[in-house]
Predict the 3D structure of the following.
Amino acid sequence: MLNGRELATFRKQLLGWFRQFRRDLPWRRTKDPYRIWLSEIMLQQTRVAAAVPYYERFLERFPGVPALAAAPQQEVLRLWSGLGYYRRARNLQKAAQQIVAKHGGQFPARWDDALALPGIGTYTAAAILSIAFGEKQAVLDGNVARVLARLGAIHGDIRESRRWQELQASADGLLEPKSPGDWNQAMMELGATLCIPKSPQCLLCPVAQFCEGRRLGIAESLPEKRKKRAAVDVILAAAVFLDENGWTLLLPAPSKENQSQESLAEYVPLLVSNLWHFPTVAGLRNPAAKLRAYLGKLIRGSRNRSLRFVPADEVHHTVTYRDITIKPSLIRVKRLPRIKGSERVQLNDISVLPVSNLTHKVARAARAALAAAASAAARR
Ligand code: SF4
């Protein structure tokens, strides 16, 4: 607990450091709540360097809330494609539509109105409202919680509800009321650049003199690790059709109706994204046979039996606690089969449709198998 003088010094030193050393990021050059909101949503689960090009492309296409609200969802997902956690993009658009319907297209400045929007929790609301409108709300995310746990030498699982509330209370107590937007960004910046998970840079820290974790020599071990959920192995098999002109086919996000098919119901949550994907099935045992059977259901007639599966390299992907191995098969055909709802795309350019990173990885493996087959044929 800092006394009045210490608190004033703490705030002055942290803000001074932030204003001198902050990274120049595109969303820091604006007070437009839409742009700040977009950056906050993109930065959940995504690193700054990865988010920047997406942020710029997204704003070019959707420069404001009305454009985002009116866009086809496919277009929004396509521009999000590769960032992962697609629920963020869906919620973003739903919230934009609510903002148009209820707030005349202007992001609401009131706390309760912001919190009522899909995809906006207390952290995001505090970040947007403090930066865009100077609202006195302290942010608490993983970075800030780590800084606070170290400053106060707090032991235990910081995600545990009571402890999280205590951290929120300390964040509220530190907040500089004259510049809440800069203050919140300063706390986040400290967590992102100096007070990093491994090897915190205490020698460069502007508030090191107030840090109990550092004084006790335990800063690096805080916050204490949570128990990890055990990983679950998942095996998928995917079919990459390819015709003579380089076209392949993708299936749409499964509808409720086709999710009831066993094979789909198993793998849909793993593809997470409800996006376009290669025909895929799940199964720890003999996924290739399951894939053939699944294609048999999709493609009626004798064509299915004559399909030749060329295995491509396995693809590995992790989604939260699931370790996914996907076994792609390249299937060369004269003409693509007709599958209800499918779309034709060039294998070299599947991103004309919204697809997940997993689907991109499968496409890359199929292209590599194709190149290997071509060079083997040239040697013969
Ligand atoms: Fe983090 Fe070190 Fe600064 Fe403490 S002194 S807040 S551990 S960087």
Observations:
- Residues 281 and 291 are 6 Å apart (CA to CA).
- The first strand starts at residue 232 and ends at 242.
- Confidence is low (pLDDT under 50) at residues 260-265.
